[in-house]
Design a protein that fits this description.
The chain is built from 6 helices and 9 strands. By secondary structure, the chain is α/β, with parallel strands linked by helices. The protein has a single domain, classed as 3-Layer(aba) Sandwich (Rossmann fold), CATH 3.40.50.150. It has a 7-stranded mixed beta sheet with strand order 3-2-1-4-5-9-8, with helices on both faces. Strands 6-7 form a two-stranded antiparallel ribbon. The longest helix has 20 residues. The radius of gyration is 16 Å and the shape is globular. It starts with 5 loop residues before the first helix and ends with a strand. 41% of the residues are buried. Bound molecules: S-adenosylmethionine. S-adenosylmethionine (SAM) binds next to helix 1, helix 3 and strand 2.
Amino acid sequence: MTESPSYLSATAEAYDAVAVRYADFVRDGLDHLPLDRAIVAAFADFVSAAGVGPVAELGCGPGRITAHLRDLGLDVFGVDLSPVMIDIAREAYPDLRFEVGSMGALDLADGELSGIVSWYSVIHIPPQELPPYFAEFRRVLAPGGWLLLAFFESEGGSMLAFDHKVAPAYRWPIDDLAALAREAGFDEVGRMLREPCEEERYRRGHLLMRSR
Ligand SMILES: C[S@@+](CC[C@H](N)C(=O)[O-])C[C@H]1O[C@@H](n2cnc3c(N)ncnc32)[C@H](O)[C@@H]1O
């Protein structure tokens, strides 16, 4: 993708404005979310078993998931649209690499990565715009590379825009998001749905996929 659509600058500005509060809000990371930790651990095990190679967290925000992946033994870096988020991530985790950029146009060679995590970042891509993002994920992943997506699920069977507190966002039926990724060259390995915890609104979806 070469152009820079207006929704990207709007998302970056929106996250810049709340970055400090957001980082504070998610500071506990995955401490109280054993099922989330389990699927991230499964991703890390699969990537490690396939050999060493860099992993990117795309839409890393303040970097807490990037750091969690590092703690699981992965060679990981983060990319985010929001320069303020990246400043916060660099300050919190000075041993890790964080870059400003869009996950739709990555400054990476074909097949350079062993794994990609998108933890609640593709939620901000307008649904009709999502296929080129998945194509970009496929381009930078080596064949057999691993992809982990986390998102808000839409139980009703159709994709829904919702009033996310920071930027426009979309909930996906898990089958529809899996089908879109499959069309881009990913095979599903597993999925996890979990019910919302206290103070969460929607069921959470997770897809673990492998590039062909
Ligand atoms: C809900 S936050 C999640 C942050 C982080 N993954 C976490 O769980 O703490 C979504 C993040 O995705 C980033 N984002 C949205 N669209 C993006 C894009 N096209 N490229 C890179 N980052 C993007 C936003 O700037 C924001 O930091």
